[in-house]
Amino acid sequence: MNQRADPRPVSLNFLAGGGEMGALMRAHDWSATSLGPPEGWPQALRTTVRLMLNTGHPMFIFWGLDRACLYNDAYSASIGPERHPVALGQPGRAVWEEIWPVIGPQIEQAQSGKGATWNVDHLIPITRHGRVEEVYWTYSYSPIDDDTAPNGVGGVLVVCSETTRQVRAARELANQRDQLAQMFEQAPTFMAMLRGPEHRFELANPGYVKLVGGRSVLGLTVAEALPEAVEQGYIVLLDQVYASGEAYVAREDRFEIQPPDGGPPIERYANFVYQPIKDASGQVGGIFIEGSDVTDQVRSRLQLEALNAELAATVGQLEENERSQSLQLRLANALLPLESPEAIIAAASELLGRELGASRVFYAEVDDERGTLFIRQNWTAPGFASLAGQTEVLDDYGPDMIAQLRAGVIVANEDIALDPRTAAHTEAYARIGVRADLITPLVRARKLEAILVIHDAGVHPWQERELQLVRAMAERTWSAVEAARAQAELREERDRSRRIFDSMKEGFALLDADWTLRHVNTAAAHISRRPAGALIGQSHWKAFPELVGTEVESLYRQVQRERTAASVEHHHVFPSGSQAWIEIRAVPALRDELAVFFRDISERKRSEKQLQESARRKDEFLAMLAHELRNPLAPIGAAAQLLQLVKLDEVRVRDTSRIIARQVEHMTGLVNDLLDVSRVTTGLVTLDAVPVDMRQVVSHAVEQVTPLLQSRRHELSLQLAPDTFMVTGDEKRLVQVLANILNNAAKYTPEGGKLRLDMGIADGEIVVGVADNGIGMDAALVPHVFDLFSQAERTPDRSSGGLGLGLALVKSLVELHRGSVSAASDGPGKGSRFTIWLPRREETVEQADVAPPNADPDDACAPLRIMVVDDNVDAAATLAMLLEALGHTALVEYSPTRALARARRERPDVCLLDIGLPEMDGNELARRLRAQPETARALLVAITGYGQEHDRSTALAAGFDHHMVKPVDTARLGAILAARAGQRGG
């Protein structure tokens, strides 16, 4: 070594307080080393050794040409008994021969006077504790000045940190993040497909859309979708790849994205490849883009490089920066075990505040758009007020100062009152007790994100050393905060993804390449009827042996082979014997894994089957309705032609008219049945609830069906118990119920058959039963006999015709009366029985003697002047002929306007008006007739095809006296006209 002897005795006190290594150095025999006795060590070496021995951070020194090794207690604990304490004073290469290729070049560089250098997270296999270990280290190498050395550098101080745990933890978190991200997306990287020489986007995955700020790029060229890519040279690169057919690979490529809201460009870094896509002939047809956003990694590395450079510079000036270096080391030690950003900021703020003797220290998050900063927490000296939780306005502290911060310049105010940047804002500073401050901006991507603020209650002339210290502390602390937040976000993303999958109602399972179930959510365990603990880690085919050889196995193998998602609907039989329909979707995942989603669709399958059955019954009903409506039309048409072609005598004319009337009556009954069912099933029917004697209901119902019974020569027997059969209900509707059941029994009982109606009381209810010895019912029909459009098979002569509505109407009307109805049969050919239960009413009522007779439409009455208004010429003509046959004078008009004019001239006694008229409807015509003096007292009758209750209410409100539905009930019309003629005659 090139050393200069110092004749003055030098005390070894600089080794005092150095722990075990200090004691070891004092007792060491240095004669066998190139260092010589410590009394002869240069001042720079003694100063560095003192600092090294009194810190808890692993450090060692290589001194002199032999690189003699000195180290502290923290370092001795990390190198193992194989080297400690033998390494003390020995040449560095001899001690670390196995890793000298890694550290040797940096040692040479630092000692040759070329400046500090470093290794970051470097993998170094070393032998310690009797075995070879693969560990990661971060080293910084800083030269130690020595004016006795030829180049002014006597040795190298190495500050090291073992980062094995952090590196492995970071990799583990990254692996978990990638695996969970794959569950959502098919690729963990950004990808896009460009077509043609103009580079038009054909595909872009969510990762790429996120990379470009959420823009919609599909169908656009790169130049159209990303204008900033043109000026940054990416179009030229794409053109080169397209023309040459050679891929372009970029590592940590820097680019800028323009936000959609027009804000400042965002700086990003990415690893990517432009891969040309060639057809079979070798022609390039497009370019595949694949890559990953490495902004965080690059920024972290750049930040780490900056921190290491600062550390190297600080170590290079140990004598004058010893205090700052010690603080940096204490900060590193303090932050090493901390994970939360809040704890990191609190520790760094306290350390810095005490070091500088400040009154208050805090990191504030800046909202530059709103011009505010938020102080989440702060450190304060005893007795100094806290600002934690407050939001401050930036401009309150001087716009000029804030402008400098936005530019990344540290602002140092020795005296707020005297500094021209803040003099006008002393009141705001005085309010929080500040006389001097030091503010360090933290700028990312040209955006002010946060500031580190040092407050002092008195005047403070800030030194350059303090500015450098604060800047280093700010950057290092904020980098640690960002790293902690990134780690927290990774953990939160992993936990959130797991919670999402576990909370899904759809079953989810992850299968690896050898079919092992790696993950199963709660829904999957529920649907498969197996506990999740019994599935995870098991082979899929062992857990579900019933799926081997099914379409499910074919699906899985197809997706695994083709790497394309597919699905199947599988009818599954569980080991217990229960069955279910399961929809299964398989999606390719990472490393030949399969993500399987499945759900129970049994209910949907049942609904589909029910819909198919309903559609079939509806089609059958429509065919039946068409047939039933054509049947009466045939004799009506034939009768009409007969009246036109042949001159008939009066008897034949009367017979023909009766045929037409009967068929019209039959068609009217069909339409009324349809309307009745519609009104009842949609809740539009209201009951006239009064006390009703069920004996009278039976009497009226039997009266209605007697003609049918007689025509089919049926024998009906009645068995009524001698009790009071009172209910609360609508007599007309109850008669309709019983008549429909009796009609149904008659239709499905061959001629000469027997019917029986019995009525009694059981459990407080009136029970009415109708039985027959007819064709009976199949067991499959009985549960559906009251369904709409449901009907037993018809006989060839169609004697049991109908629309299948009668029993559906029966069920609805009985339930409206708070009762119930059932059907039973012993099978085909064994007859049927229908039973009705109705709540019994206890009190009796007096029956009316005899209803007043209706007016006979055939009775002669005084002639009336009657105006008929209908745009249907045939309908108007036939109605006019009917009126004239009754002895009245008929005035026919087809237009509402002409009808108004004629009514003023001829003053009709009665107006029969169609509702669906042109120009104005019948309701409006009625209102105008009521408004004319000539027809204000005329009798107005609505003749219409609209028969709903609201149609009747609307007509009466418009001024009509009566509402009649087509085809007109001639008996009722005759009675109305007779009553009007009687009033006029009176």
From TrEMBL:
The modification 4-aspartylphosphate is found at D914. Residues 865-981 form the Response regulatory domain. Keywords: Kinase, Phosphoprotein, Transferase. Its EC number is 2.7.13.3. Pfam families: GAF (PF01590), HATPase_c (PF02518), HisKA (PF00512), PAS_4 (PF08448), Response_reg (PF00072). One of its GO terms (cellular component) is plasma membrane. Transmembrane segments: none annotated. PROSITE patterns: HIS_KIN (PS50109), RESPONSE_REGULATORY (PS50110). It is a multi-pass membrane protein. PANTHER family: HYBRID SIGNAL TRANSDUCTION HISTIDINE KINASE C (PTHR43547:SF2), TWO-COMPONENT HISTIDINE KINASE (PTHR43547). This is histidine kinase. It comes from Massilia litorea.
